[in-house]
Amino acid sequence: MTAVAVSDRARTGRRAALLSAVIVVQTLCAIFFLGDVIGDLVGDGQFEGPHKWVEIVAGLAMVGGVAFLIFELRRVMNRVAILENATRAAQGEMADVIEAFFDEWNLTASERDVALLMLKGIENDEIARIRGTASGTVRAQGAAVFRKAGVDGRPQLFSIFMEELLAGE
């Protein structure tokens, strides 16, 4: 998952939590105002004076606000679901794109492993340790990947996939 996607998802999650908290507070306020109006009506049965009308309007505004916030929270939660689906799709599509290039370049299984670890930003010595091979073997397999891909090094290899990702359809 990219840093932008993580940041957008975190921001959306915070927004959902804030909306939930505001909904709870506003619901409690609406219950208070409407309860006070009902209590006054039961007590004396009259709508005299501006105070009761202000409470009625405030209570109804709070109920309207709660309805709007619930709608907005649903919209935010749908956005989170869309972002998560898009992220999963992008990850799956990128894996397919990588495999297609590896197939086109006729990489061996070892070269595929090394190329994938290079794309993840792992250094040769670490790749050698992960794969249980010598650093020289990893360098040779990396050179074979670069030759078959027609690039001079990691930055150009990486740029092939970035261009494909950014090109879209």
Automatic annotation (TrEMBL):
Keywords: Membrane, Transmembrane, Transmembrane helix. The keyword Secreted does not apply. GO terms for molecular function: DNA binding. Gene3D superfamilies: Winged helix-like DNA-binding domain superfamily/Winged helix DNA-binding domain. Pfam families: GerE. The keyword Transport does not apply. Residues 104-161 form the HTH luxR-type domain. The chain crosses the membrane at residues 16-33, 53-71. GO terms for biological process: regulation of DNA-templated transcription. Coiled coil: none annotated. This is Transcriptional regulator, LuxR family protein.
